[in-house]
Amino acid sequence: GGMGGGMGRRDDRACHNCGRTGHLARDCRTGGGARGYDAPRGRAPRAPRAAKTAGQDDVCNRCNQAGHWARDCPQPDTRPESERGRQPGDKDKCRNCGAEGHFARDCPEPKDTSCRICKQEGHFARECPQKNTAAAANMDADLDNYMKEGAKGTGEA
């Protein structure tokens, strides 16, 4: 018992991904986690899934009302700025609409749910089956640019 960090019984709260208890969404074997609940490393990618919407029993962490999550809360965020994370500057670009001055989490436009790598719906870039291929292509392009420009500023002291 006691105040130990990771020992003891699992949390009784439901997973935000599948609704079952005993694990967190990041560990969920039905999709959305880093690897999937107890899944072996190197497993084949999951099939794309739709974004989960809050049910009647899901409670918002901002206003404590049931039926929605904080990301969809109609109430203004009243936390002090120091607790909200970095605020956008004039040159910060939204990854949803491309406009400057706000982050995607605050974007007034409909959310772009397509993958930034392959532009397909149903998964995000971190889950993209083409992620490693895209990363390799970017590294090849970076290497090509490096070779064209030469190794500037190296070797001579």
TrEMBL record:
Signal peptide: none annotated. One of its GO terms (molecular function) is zinc ion binding. It comes from the Eukaryota. Residues 15-29, 60-75, 93-109, 115-130 form the CCHC-type domain. Residues 78-95 have a biased composition (Basic and acidic residues). SMART domains: ZnF_C2HC. Keywords: Metal-binding, Zinc, Zinc-finger. Residues 29-55, 67-95 are annotated as: Disordered. InterPro entries: Znf_CCHC, Znf_CCHC_NABP, Znf_CCHC_sf. Gene3D superfamilies: Zinc finger, CCHC-type. This is CCHC-type domain-containing protein. It comes from Ostreococcus mediterraneus. The lineage of its organism: Eukaryota, Viridiplantae, Chlorophyta, Mamiellophyceae, Mamiellales.
